[in-house]
Each structure stands twice: as structure tokens, then as C-alpha cells.
Amino acid sequence: MAQDNAKLVYDRPEALVDRAHHYCPGCGHGIIHKLLAEIIDDAGIRENTIIVAPVGCSVLAYFYLNVDGCEAAHGRAPAVATGIKRVHGNSKHVLVYQGDGDLLAIGTAETIHAANRGENLTIIFVNNAIYGMTGGQMAPTSLAEQKTKTSPYGRKVADFGQPIRACEMINTLEAPVFIERCAVNSVKNILKTKKALKKAVKNQVEGRGYSFVEILSMCPTGWGIKPVDALKWVEDAMIPYYPLGNFRDR
Amino acid sequence: MARGEPEINPERCKGCELCVSACPEGILAMSEGFNKQGQVYSECIAPEKCTACMSCAIICPDSAIRIWRYAG
Ligand SMILES: Cc1ncc(C[n+]2csc(CCOP(=O)(O)OP(=O)(O)O)c2C)c(N)n1
Ligand code: SF4
Ligand code: SF4
Fold first, then answer.
1. Whose CA is closest to A198, among A76, A43, A82, A12?
2. Within an 8 Å CB–CB cutoff, is residue B51 touching chain A?
3. Domain assignment of residue A2, yes or no
4. What is the span of the domain harbouring residue A50?
5. Which of A4, A219, B29, B45 is the one with CA 20 to 30 A from A201?
6. pTM higher than 0.90 for the full model?
7. What percent of chain B has pLDDT above 70?
């Protein structure tokens, strides 16, 4: 360090394993992993946390977060997490990490029913409007007219329906205690996301019930644009359709 | 105004440029050369202007940036 009066004010959190991850340049998963690691460190729950990873680009999340982990079959993370949580009760905190293909296509049933049962879980829903891992196919969250590998002329609403707004849908159910939509496309939004995730984890630690945090996230590779342009695409295209904010905080 | 400096690990940088776009002082830029992964990487070109605001570090998806703040 250049000066001896220097103090380290920002460093890699302890719960984030010190290794390079496999995500593409500018991918939002890396930012979200780091936020989770910071929250785990701040809450001092590293030894008692279990992450349930999805099928999708974040399939290896347990390689990067220094907590116990479990892999679920595609879309089944909330069901697997229900089992883990019910066996361990409040001695373990279970983070359920899912992409939009995982949570809202193949796993729709598990998503809705875990929410409806009000399982004491923290759901981290990474909405990047595309299937990243498999090469950029249309997701239930792909925007109207969005061009993807499987909608080369743009998503036609008449054929595929409107993109699904997960928070609004979960918000029709009685049981959830916390529902918020955030984004990681700017420093300001990242700080708000951290606050929401912190609350969603705290709710579980306090045994309050089901918390759902949707995070609008960048997939520059799947979208075929530069990472910096992806920040703007979240702002200009995604946020107008997926408004940010808190839907429920009981 | 606080002062400080980013410490950027060139081998962890993937060259996404998110930090460059996030820095309010505009003092980050991409390298001329390449790291071992064959990527250009982010460098601080005017550390004396850094306010240790941490914006670059917060947005870096690869946790390649640490921030030092100078006392006084
Ligand atoms: C049962 C089953 N069906 C399909 C697949 C193929 N598959 C792997 S990942 C994925 C979608 C991932 O997209 P998303 O959940 O949005 O996560 P992302 O990669 O964008 O983070 C699909 C369809 C699979 N692995 N297993
Ligand atoms: S394909 Fe998209 S979601 Fe997957 S690692 Fe790359 S940028 Fe991230
Ligand atoms: S945000 Fe991180 S990975 Fe991206 S260019 Fe800056 S230092 Fe490199």
C-alpha cells in the first residue's frame, strides 16, 4: 500500500471463497454472490447457512460461497430447501438461489407452493430475462419483442404470453412475509439490494417466514451486448416493466 | 473530502469495465497490456483524485477491487 496511514475499508468478504469464478465479464451473479457473502459475514451465520443452488449459470454457487451447499434438480430448489429447513428447523438458515428459467419455468409449481405454505426460507430470484447457461434462450421473463436464440424475431406476446412478474404473482398469496424487487445495475441499486437481502435473511433467522427477493441482473453474453450497455438495458428496458420496490414487509 | 486508493487485482479482473462506468471521478481506465487470461484490466490513472467512495469495488462482479482510505 502506498501510504502507511491507509486503512482497508472495502475488501472481499470472508464468506466469499478467494477464487476466480466462472461467470462471464459483467455478469450480475458475481455481484449478488458478493452481497450474500457480506450479509452472511455481518450476521455471523457462516457456520449455520446452507445454500441450495439451482440449475443454471449459478449451479456452482456453493463453490464460491463458503457455506454448506446442496444442488437441486432443475426448478426443485424450494422443495429441496423445504426438506432441509424442516429437518434442521431454526438451527440452519437456508438460502434458495434461482434463475428465472429455474424458478419461473420448470420450477413454477415448487415456487408457488413453497411460497403458499410460507416456508421459512429466503428465496433469491435472479431475473436476467434469459436462459444464460444454455446459451440465451427465451425465458418466461424475457421482455415482449426481446430477441433471444429461441425468439429470433422477438418475443411475440400472442404466441408466448406476457413476461411473468414474479413479485406481483407471489404477492397474491397470503403467507409470504417479505417481497421485494431490486436490481444490481448501479451502485445505488446494489446497495438497496443488499438491504433487501439482509432483511430477507434476518426474517428467516428470526423464524418469521417466507421472504422473496427478485433481483434484476445483467446477462451481457445472453443479451449479446457489452457489460456497460447491459447496465443500461436493465434501467431502460427491464425496470419499466418490472418496477423496483417493496411489495410486502410484515 | 476523504482520500484513498483502489487496489485492483489485474489477474482477477475480467475487463468488463463496470468499474470504469461507476467511478464518479472518472479515474479508472482499461490497461494497454493484457493479464494472464488475455484480458485488458482496469487501472487507476489518477489515484490522487480518489475519494475512497467504493463505487468501483461495489459494482465489480469479480471482487477484484479493494479500497484503501487514508486517515486525516
Ligand atoms: C430437467 C432439465 N431440463 C433442462 C435443462 C437445461 N437447462 C440448464 S440451465 C437451464 C436454464 C437456466 O436459465 P436460468 O434459470 O434463467 O439461469 P441463468 O443461467 O440465466 O442464470 C436449462 C433449461 C436441465 N439442465 N435439466
Ligand atoms: S451466460 Fe449470462 S448469466 Fe451466465 S455467466 Fe454469462 S453473463 Fe452470467
Ligand atoms: S469491474 Fe472488476 S472485473 Fe470489471 S473491469 Fe473493473 S476491476 Fe475488472
1. A43
2. no
3. no
4. 24-131+145-241
5. A219
6. yes
7. 100
